[in-house]
Design brief:
Layout (H helix, E strand, L loop, with lengths): L2 H6 L10 E4 L4 H13 L3 E7 L6 H15 L3 E5 L9 H19 L4 E3 L4 H13 L4 H4 L5 E4 L2 E4 L7 H11 L15 H12 L6 H29 E4 L2 E4 L8 H15 L8 H12 L4 E3 L2 E6 L2 E6 L1 H4 L4 E2 L8 E4 L12 E4 L1 H5 L12 H5 L2 E5 L2 E4 L10 E4 L14
GO molecular function: ATP binding; tRNA(Ile)-lysidine synthase activity
Subcellular location: Cytoplasm
GO biological process, one term: tRNA modification
Length: about 400
């Protein structure tokens, strides 16, 4: 099958009317650019200059010139967040997603296509195998994913890196070789170099990618069971997640996934807790013990397992009214044009605030949940605590996450 047709078979491509292309200038993303332009897809390209190499700005402009020749609008974004500490590649990846997602939303794009290939799937598989990852870590990258409020497509996952470069050479097109791709200081580079030896043992990139694909099918099957269990056993109670008592009878892997999704949403976190910590929490919950994990409180109760925010995790979190608090709460003021929110802040209610809510027991929420509940303050004066029976016309609304949402499990 021709390369262009294989590219167009990528999930989401034919349905997307306004597509963004993340083009670094490397061989994979330049092949993505040429294939999309040749296919006549309405696209807009973007290059992120991470500011880490003096050549990067010139390379971004070079991508722009290729885009101009192909009739593809092009923008350049610059990241200046690296302070020399931590994991550079991970921080750059996260920053790149945030920047591109904001750019795409501003441009009215429906999705952004990335240039990940079959070789990336194989390298990622080996890297995560070395870390002892489970099914989710070893499974192939998702061809369609939602993160940072944007849909991300990977239409090249079934195509090898060398095949794409051969296509570029056939076109007479050039690409940029980033010197960091040969720097053994990075795990991915060392794994890429090791794969050359593994190929002699039959572990070629296509074979490793096939195994990752099989595990992706297992992941999808587990997710289907997760959705069934969530729809049957889980409910949201004013920001807490309550899992009905039969939840402890679920297969351990489904229970683990359900707890991980619930904790991620309650904590407003990009990721769930790590496996060993979650496993230990599960064992203690089985014994009827209340535990704290991931900034949350897991309390076995007669109604089931209640998962709520831990007050200590949010006691210092402050947001101006009108800004989202703790990643998921919006406090909405009473109606009326003459109502002013100047000087108001959203904070956790805490013991002092709860003491000013005489009717909090009538709310039906347990005291630990109310301590971590959002409330409105003006200095030391409590203005409203909607979840604790002191609304004064205010309402509190919990919103979905951008990077994965427990609520979606309940709406299938």
């Amino acid at each position: 099958m021709p390369l262009r047709e294989r590219f167009l078979r990528g999930p989401g491509l034919r349905e997307t009317r306004a597509l963004g292309l993340a083009v670094s200038g490397g061989g994979d993303s330049m092949a993505l650019l040429h294939l999309a332009a040749e296919a006549g897809i309405a696209t807009r390209a973007v290059t992120v200059d991470h500011g880490l190499r003096p050549e990067a700005a010139d390379e971004a402009r070079a991508v722009g010139r290729v885009c101009a020749d192909l009739g593809v609008p092009h923008d350049i974004l610059r990241w200046e967040g690296w302070d020399g500490r931590g994991n550079l590649m991970d921080q750059a990846r996260r920053a790149r997603l945030r920047l591109i997602a904001g750019w795409a939303r501003g441009a009215g794009l429906e999705a952004v296509a990335l240039g990940h290939t079959r070789d990336d799937v194989a390298e990622t598989f080996l890297m995560r195998l070395a870390r002892g990852a489970g099914v989710d870590g070893l499974a192939a990258m998702q061809a369609v994913r939602r993160a940072e409020g944007m849909v991300w497509l990977r239409p090249l996952l079934g195509i090898g890196r060398e095949e794409l470069r051969a296509d570029l050479r056939r076109r007479g097109a050039s690409w940029i070789e980033d010197p960091s791709n040969d720097n053994p200081a990075f795990d991915r580079v060392r794994m890429r170099q090791a794969m050359e030896s593994l190929a002699d043992l039959g572990l070629r990139p296509e074979r490793l990618a096939d195994v990752a694909g099989h595990l992706a099918e297992v992941r999808d099957a587990l997710d289907l069971q997760l959705r069934e269990a969530a729809g049957r056993l889980a409910r949201v109670d004013r920001g807490d997640v309550v899992l009905a008592p039969p939840v402890l009878e679920l297969p351990p892997e489904i229970l683990r996934r359900l707890l991980q999704a619930a904790l991620q949403w309650v904590a407003s976190a990009e990721y769930g807790p790590r496996g060993p910590a979650l496993g230990e929490a599960m064992r203690r919950v089985f014994d009827g013990t209340t535990v704290t994990l991931h900034g949350c409180r897991l309390a076995p109760r007669r109604e089931g397992l209640r998962i709520g925010r831990e007050w200590q995790a949010v006691r210092s979190v402050v947001a101006a009214v009108g800004e989202r608090w703790d990643g998921r709460w919006d406090l909405q003021a009473p109606g009326g044009a003459d109502f002013s929110t100047d000087g108001l802040e959203t904070r956790a209610l805490g013991p002092e605030g709860l003491a000013r809510c005489p009717d909090w027991r009538a709310s039906g929420l347990p005291r630990p949940s109310l301590l971590a509940a959002p409330s409105v303050w003006r200095g030391d004066a409590l203005v409203a605590a909607p979840l604790a029976g002191l609304s004064n016309g205010w309402t509190a609304v919990a919103h979905p996450l951008q990077n994965g949402d427990f609520l979606s499990l309940l709406s299938h």
